[in-house]
Amino acid sequence: MSASPSVSVPGSAPRVGVWLIGARGSVATTVVAGCAALTAGLHAPTGMVTETPLFAGVGLPPLASLVFGGHDTTDCALPKRAEALAEGGVLPHGLPEAVTAELAAADAEIRPGGPLPGDTRTPDELISAFTADLQDFVRRRGLTRAVVVNVASTEPAPTDTAPPPSSLYAAAALRAGCPYVNFTPSTGLDHPALASLAESAGVPWAGRDGKTGQTLLRSVLGPMFAQRALTVRAWSGTNLLGGGDGAALADPAAAAAKNAGKERVVTDTLGTAPEGETHIDDVPALGDWKTAWDHIAFDGFLDTRMVLQTTWQGCDSALAAPLVLDLARLLARAHEAGLTGPLPELAFYFKDPAGEAPSALGEQYAALAGFAERLRTGGRDLPTAGAVADGPLPAGPEDGPPAAGRGPGRTPPSGPRRPGGPGPRPVRDPGPRPVRDPGPRPVRDPGPRGEAR
């Protein structure tokens, strides 16, 4: 089912909806407040890749054209939520007051999510209700299209065949004819019940699990070790965090789902699974701030044992918000260009990207650059070497041979394959890898994956 035709306002620029699942959470509030601040010229678009020269002339919707709404199961109004974030140092002092009107306008477009406690509606009834909310949003606000972005708290992996809430929202997005982004490791579109709908919906989608901190660094360090032929013996990590993330990830099932994505990047970029695990600890006093430590034990020449330790400290909402704005604009432009299905070219933004994609950040950036050029030419395939899903990819920025990605020969994780199939591997032929053969890859079964915001 497609969204109802939008109503154009004479003399106005085309407007694009951004429908946030978890619309009153920290990430969503930062997205709305941040977009308003950038539009008003109060702050620079730091962290937004779509505002760099790479995307000049691509035809992305302007930030001023974005209209926000969403679903949530809480009733704390966005202006009040923004004030709390400013008190915690997440938003700049005084910003909530400066963009109160924009926050209130977005809050007026938030509809009750579900299922709520005691909710007796069937999954299909919930999907129909969510779809109607989306279609009404597009119609009333005169939007050319709307992109649905899941930024809700991580849910545990499903233990039965019933679709979890994240999958109900994803199904509603497809039924409404809306592009979809899963910025969390929750199930979303990766549920067997949604496979046929995903194939027939005719919209683009991307995800899952936004790459904002520790895993971003791992996607750089893993290829470094592989390309320098240094043997990583163990890679362990610890995360300390509070706020909604910490509360949601205090659930061992949710934490396991999130950790699987972090560890998968290490395995994919190294070509082998080193010893060590990643742990997450809920520290409520930290609020929206995170500290992540990595301890990497590796061997150098003549088996000399060495260690690299890293510390990443950051505000998750401030790291995630510019990526959400990037993805909303990219999916809207992809939809306008007629692209459909998974977009592995956007792996740069995710721990576990849709479709077959490399895991090394440099290769992912090359794919993103190719995608920018593809959009610049109206979505047409490019006559260059290498292919990215429906279109080719120009050579990446790295001179050295890339690390192992998610292409042929990789032992796939267990569980259902992502809708749309793997497609061709979106990297150029690297030639022989300058590392010793690790033998059969001991990839662990990560199980289903999840995320908190």
Automatic annotation (TrEMBL):
<dbReference type="InterPro" id="IPR002587">
    <property type="entry name" value="Myo-inos-1-P_Synthase"/>
</dbReference>
<dbReference type="InterPro" id="IPR013021">
    <property type="entry name" value="Myo-inos-1-P_Synthase_GAPDH"/>
</dbReference>
<feature type="domain" description="Myo-inositol-1-phosphate synthase GAPDH-like">
    <location>
        <begin position="213"/>
        <end position="317"/>
    </location>
</feature>
<protein>
    <submittedName>
        <fullName>Inositol-3-phosphate synthase</fullName>
    </submittedName>
</protein>
<feature type="compositionally biased region" description="Basic and acidic residues">
    <location>
        <begin position="426"/>
        <end position="453"/>
    </location>
</feature>
<feature type="region of interest" description="Disordered">
    <location>
        <begin position="381"/>
        <end position="453"/>
    </location>
</feature>
<feature type="compositionally biased region" description="Low complexity">
    <location>
        <begin position="390"/>
        <end position="405"/>
    </location>
</feature>
<dbReference type="Pfam" id="PF01658">
    <property type="entry name" value="Inos-1-P_synth"/>
</dbReference>
<dbReference type="Pfam" id="PF07994">
    <property type="entry name" value="NAD_binding_5"/>
</dbReference>
<dbReference type="InterPro" id="IPR036291">
    <property type="entry name" value="NAD(P)-bd_dom_sf"/>
</dbReference>
<feature type="compositionally biased region" description="Pro residues">
    <location>
        <begin position="410"/>
        <end position="425"/>
    </location>
</feature>
<comment type="similarity">
    <text>Belongs to the myo-inositol 1-phosphate synthase family.</text>
</comment>
